[in-house]
Design brief:
Elements lengths: L1 H16 L2 H25 L8 H29 L5 H23 L2
Length: 111
């Protein structure tokens, strides 16, 4: 949820300060991270309980491999299909959404 909120804030700030191309570039980078993270979360937390240890481990691996594959494919599609594109803003959006997870964990641990 935090990643979606940060995505919306980034897009609005970029649209106001840097223009439309920067805004949709940030949106695309953020969306790539969001979609890949959502896939990983779905796969990784599909199973639970002590009896499901091997299924949980397999799900984590499948989720991580799927996340990396999805990320690569989505970046390739964006580079092929979207013109004009602000590459710096694209990667900035992606990186900031990835960092959102770390920052959220840090703050939730300190509460």
């Amino acid at each position: 949820m935090a990643q979606a909120v940060v995505t919306a804030l980034l897009v609005v700030v970029c649209a106001i300060t840097l223009g439309v191309v920067a805004a949709y570039s940030v949106f695309l980078g953020s969306s790539i991270a969001l979609l890949a993270n959502a896939y990983f979360t779905y796969k990784a937390f599909k199973y639970f309980g002590a009896r499901s240890v091997s299924a949980i481990l397999q799900s984590f691996w499948a989720g991580q491999v799927g996340k990396m594959f999805m990320t690569a494919v989505l970046f390739a599609l964006v580079f092929i299909a979207v013109k004009p594109l602000n590459v710096v803003q694209l990667f900035l959006g992606y990186i900031l959404i990835q960092l959102t997870s770390v920052v959220t964990l840090f703050f939730s641990k300190n509460l």
